[in-house]
Design a protein that fits this description.
This protein is 27% helix and 28% strand. By secondary structure, it is α+β, with helices and mostly antiparallel strands. The chain has two domains: 206 residues, DD-peptidase/beta-lactamase superfamily (Beta-lactamase); 92 residues, Peptidoglycan synthesis regulatory factor (PBP3), Domain 2.
Length: 347
């Protein structure tokens, strides 16, 4: 299991684009020893000791939820599958629903209970309870959270304020009180132990933009809430999010030696672009298309790029891709093309 988790964390880092901290005015007044504000694209908006290794307490369960979501996506698990409790899990203590040994509960109900680039991470248990060597960092928690948010169904669980399991006999109340007090908050996980302090990974969405704020090791619950609120307020006040439309009309690209003279193209699906609100008027776009492509052409093959600039700084490159395949001419087709060229001077 440890090898599988390490492999997945490495894959996450490789899959995420590399971004630098933006040049917006710095955020001050964050009291937690480690904190980070990030956009789902991977762009970091604020950081404070982001790679400092700390015990995350129950924020650990973000990884648990991510593993479950990926198992469901692979088809290895279903929401309706039943999980059987054990003496070992019941003995762990901490926040739990006291699932008796042999008692069964669906994956969906278990997720309710759990929900209500990570080189710094080493988990030795799934509960987040204090244990030697059980550490992560604000940066790694943010990376886990970015990946988890790609599974939108998770918000059906992380946004729960009150619910029940066991046919309504066992009531659940979220430890994330900000669900009721912060506009747009929809997850993800709080954590606390006496040794690790108060921690949280919070996701919030307003309009087209989502943000993730992470705090590790705050001294009090109130300090944790204040830091999360300050980072999210800063992000929403300073930035806006734009997603270039894949339906933007583009000219077809000529094809040499193809069964079709040209191939239609479009912008590839892209992640939202984060832009400082004060810089919106300075946004420029430059389209660069190949003058031609040689057959065969594959569907999805890159044939150009759309570059987005803020002033003189390039902030995004979006591939332009072929929307259909174009096969190469066979012998007979080439012979006809040469014949037409000789007779009429056209292909």
């Amino acid at each position: 299991m440890k090898k599988a988790i390490c492999f997945m964390l490495c894959a996450m880092f490789l899959a995420l684009p590399a971004f630098a901290v933006t040049s917006a005015a710095p955020l001050s007044g964050i009291t937690a020893p480690s904190a980070l504000l990030i956009h789902p694209s991977g762009e970091i908006l604020f950081e404070k000791n982001p790679h400092e290794k700390r015990n995350p307490a129950s924020v650990t369960k973000i990884m648990t939820m991510l593993l479950v979501m990926e198992a469901i996506e692979r088809g290895d698990l279903k929401m309706t599958d039943m999980v059987t409790g054990s003496d070992h899990s019941r003995s762990m203590g901490g926040t739990q629903i006291w699932l008796a040994a042999g008692e069964q509960m669906s994956v969906s109900d278990m997720l309710k209970c759990v929900a209500v680039g990570m080189n710094d991470t080493h988990f030795v248990n799934a509960s987040g309870l204090d244990a030697e060597g059980h550490v992560t960092s604000a940066y790694d928690v943010a990376m886990m959270s970015v990946e988890l948010m790609k599974h939108e169904v998770i918000f059906d669980f992380t946004s729960i304020w009150m619910d029940s399991v066991r046919d309504g006999k066992f009531q659940l109340a979220s430890t994330n009180k900000m669900l009721k007090t912060y506009d747009g908050l929809n997850g993800l996980k709080t954590g606390y132990t006496s040794q690790s302090g108060y921690s949280m990974s919070a996701s919030a969405t307003r309009g087209p933009m989502s943000l993730i704020a992470v705090v590790l090791g705050a001294k009090t619950k109130e300090a944790r809430t204040a830091d999360i609120s300050a980072m999210l307020n800063y992000g929403f006040a300073t930035y806006t999010s734009v997603t270039p439309s894949a339906d933007t009309p583009l000219m077809p690209i000529p094809v040499k030696m193809g069964v079709a003279p040209a191939v239609p193209c479009r912008l590839a699906d892209s992640t939202p672009i984060l832009i400082e609100k004060q810089a919106i008027s300075g946004i420029k776009k430059e389209l660069s298309l190949m003058p031609f492509v040689s057959a065969p052409v594959e569907e999805g093959q890159q044939v150009g790029s759309l570059y987005v600039f803020s002033g003189e700084q390039q902030i995004c490159e979006i591939p332009v891709i072929a929307t259909e395949p174009v096969a190469r001419l066979g012998f007979f087709g080439i012979w006809l093309m040469l014949l037409r060229t000789a007779a009429w001077g056209t292909k």
